[in-house]
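In this supplementary section we document a worked example of the pipeline. Step one takes a protein sequence of length 375 as its only input; no multiple sequence alignment statistics are reported here. Step two produces a three-dimensional model, which step three serialises into structure tokens for compact storage. The input and output of this example are shown verbatim.
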Amino acid sequence: MSNVGEKLVGEKKEAAAQQPQQYLTMNAKLYSLERFQADFVDVSVKEVDLLNELEVSKVYHCDGLVLCVAKDKKEEPKLVLWNPYLCQTRWIEPREEFNKNNRFAIGYDDGGSGSGSDSQRNHKIMSLADTFGPERKHELVCEIYEIRSNSWRVLDVVKDKWSIDMDQRGVSVKGNTYFFAHHLAERVFRGLVLKQEEIFLICFDFAKERFGPRLPFPFDSFDGFNGDLVTLSSFVSGGGDEQLAVLFGGYESGFFEIWVTLTVDPNGASWSKFLRMDPGPFCSYGFQLYPSSGGSFLVDEDNKLAVLFELDQTQTTHKAFVFGQDGSFKSSVILGQALLLENRSYNKLYKAARPPLVSSSPYRPSSVQLNQTNV
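The serialised model returned by step three reads:
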């Protein structure tokens, strides 16, 4: 590399180290999200010139590595792993093929030490897909990709009868990934046996390479499909520990709550309510919060704030809505225009705007080598 190139990469590393960022997808492109200003009334986003030829649908962050799920013109999923600190990318080729039903997660195995550096951890990507074998029998195919060995292998995963929807994004916390899952269960109500969807958390443990037990939410686990949104995020607590957060509520209920974990691991979690917002009609603040199109959110524990990323009610603008922990509405910030993008459902094409989707906990520099392409 030339002296000029080395200087440029060095400047990028220094900037990444000094300016914590988060990444989000908006209009099928990848953006960096600069930190909110001190008064929390302004924020800037900047497009990342990384995947110009692809539509980026989802973005995940774990331990300084950013995983992007994209698609090409043939609508086939593509995976690219990015280390912004080292300015390196790696294209992840499938073992056989990816399809639009795949769910992905990124995490690591620290070998049981719990305190290894990022370069010592064994970082992995998990792929989960529903398939139908002989006689249309449902099967769950789970695969693990190891970044060190640049190879895939199939896991023998045993699970009970739960499902993870295709549009649900897993959230990485302490190297493991947590998913919002559901199961059709029987419930007795006033002497009647009713079948309702029960909702809960499922954690994929990257060290043991298996799913843990069902973890209950801190709210009624049968309320999740009553026209409400349930979406996950993560944040760094005041003690510097990664924790999980969940937003529950929506347009039908006329409120939303955010709960945060005090402790969390693949086998259990303890919760505390972070805020409750009772705005009545959400449209008075300029958003709807429908479960079918709900966006994502961030928790700022230090400043006692939460930021909700959504489409405005006209579906023409991407916005960030800022709320205080006391339930007060602080401000809304325009992030950019919302474009109508092509979507395919049941082999039919239609156009719709998608809400911005933000990665979870703030980005921090990583020394993990990807050794493929400089950007």
